[in-house]
Design goal:
Blueprint lengths: L1 E5 L4 H13 L3 E5 L20 E4 L6 H11 L3 E4 L6 H6 L2 H23 L3 H6 L1 E7 L23 H20 L3 E6 L1 E3 L8 H10 L4 E4 L5 E6 H14 L5 E4 L4 E3 H15 L14 E4 L14 H7 L7 H14 L1 H8 L14
Parallel strand pairs: 1-2, 1-4, 2-3, 4-5, 5-6, 6-10, 7-9, 8-12
Antiparallel strand pairs: 9-11
């Protein structure tokens, strides 16, 4: 297949591109605007592969997107391009409306035009796979799990914009017959993660002896999914999933934010025992800060459907995945140093003060 991936220079997108090039025979067209979170250094290992192409295009640019469809004639679209950081969405929601809603609409229209012109055989095989988040479901209480039937109840500008894009994708299926599949995933972590997110932020701050910010009491619960497990799941869905279906992808790893931070500290105590400054344990750097406005208390995914229908389960536990992640950041200072040389300086975002 020729698979067109939007957002392939981002965290999850680059993991998916690396997986497809390294583990399959398919060709990949990576379409990415290269915003602050897009990083081609995450694709260095596969950039010279003859089955890989990169196009720097904004998904909101209808003319250029249509040209890409005409030129490459893709067999499937895997749509990951999105503004994705909740704190940034609080400070500047406009970019999220533009990228996540208008961008998805633009892509859907280009895909529909392309799909309608295909032969019957190619039409049957074509897929538009929309990759979304569990945050569209809102927050859970202390019990229960998000299923594919859970009603949408987004809390932040980010999750509301992703919910909107999910609805658009399903509407293009029901109205026009476009063969779509939607996946909603839990929190991803792993190598090449942009350091404004909790896990890489904590790792890098700890290495440099800086405070480890924990929102509120740190009792918010998230289900953690190793990014390479997610990439395998996405490939399963686009090749074996049923048209019109939604699949929730989770890691079966519920942890409070404070547990996550303390686990990272313990691993660093072992792997980097030469502590910075005058501390003897990395946990001494933990600092509780004002909670995020509208912070959802708990997310947890029921991944039973994808397990039963497509025989997918995560290979990594949180313990194995987080150890690999910490080691990767220790070993790859050049990658994250280059990221930090850009506009992001690990400043606090999402207080709604802008």
């Amino acid at each position: 297949m020729k698979i067109l991936i939007t957002g392939g220079a981002g965290f999850i997108g680059s993991a998916l591109v690396r997986y497809l090039i390294n583990e399959t025979e398919h060709s990949v067209i990576n379409v990415d605007k290269l915003t602050y979170a897009g990083n081609l250094e995450s694709l260095k290992s596969i950039e010279a592969n003859p089955r890989y192409r990169f196009e720097q295009v904004d998904i909101c640019d209808a003319a250029n997107i249509e040209q890409l469809f005409q030129h490459y004639q893709p067999d499937a679209i895997m749509h990951l391009a999105a503004e994705s950081h909740v704190d940034r969405s609080i400070d500047g929601p406009a970019a999220f409306i533009q990228a996540n809603i208008i961008g998805t609409y633009t892509l859907l229209e280009a895909a529909r035009k392309h799909w309608q012109a295909l032969t019957d055989t190619k039409k049957q095989a074509f897929r538009f796979h929309h990759i979304s988040t569990d945050e569209v479901y809102g927050a859970l209480g202390e019990a229960g799990l998000f299923t594919e039937q859970t009603a949408y109840d987004p809390s932040s500008p980010y999750s509301a914009s992703k919910a909107s894009s999910d609805h658009l994708v399903r509407a293009w299926h029901r109205t026009y017959g476009l063969p779509v599949i939607v996946t909603n995933c839990s929190n991803n972590y792993g190598p090449f993660h942009f350091p404004e997110k909790l896990i890489p932020l904590v790792i890098l701050n700890a290495i440099e002896g800086k405070p480890l910010p924990v929102y509120g009491k740190g009792d918010q619960i998230r289900d953690w999914l190793y990014v390479e497990d997610h990439a395998r799941a996405l490939y399963k869905v686009v090749t074996e999933g049923s048209v019109g279906q939604t699949y929730n992808i989770g890691g079966h790893n519920e942890k409070t934010n404070l547990e996550v931070v303390k686990t990272i500290c313990r691993i660093l105590d072992e792997l980097k025992p030469n502590h910075p400054g005058n501390i003897t344990r990395y946990e001494e750097l933990i600092t509780h800060v004002t909670d995020r406005p509208g912070h959802d208390k708990r997310y947890a995914i029921d991944a039973g459907k994808i397990n039963k229908a497509l025989d997918w389960t995560p290979q990594e536990t949180f313990e194995t995945g987080i150890r690999k992640t910490v080691q990767w950041y220790i070993d790859n200072q050049a990658w994250w140093q280059n990221v930090l040389d850009g506009s992001y300086r690990r400043e606090r975002l999402g207080l709604g003060t802008k």
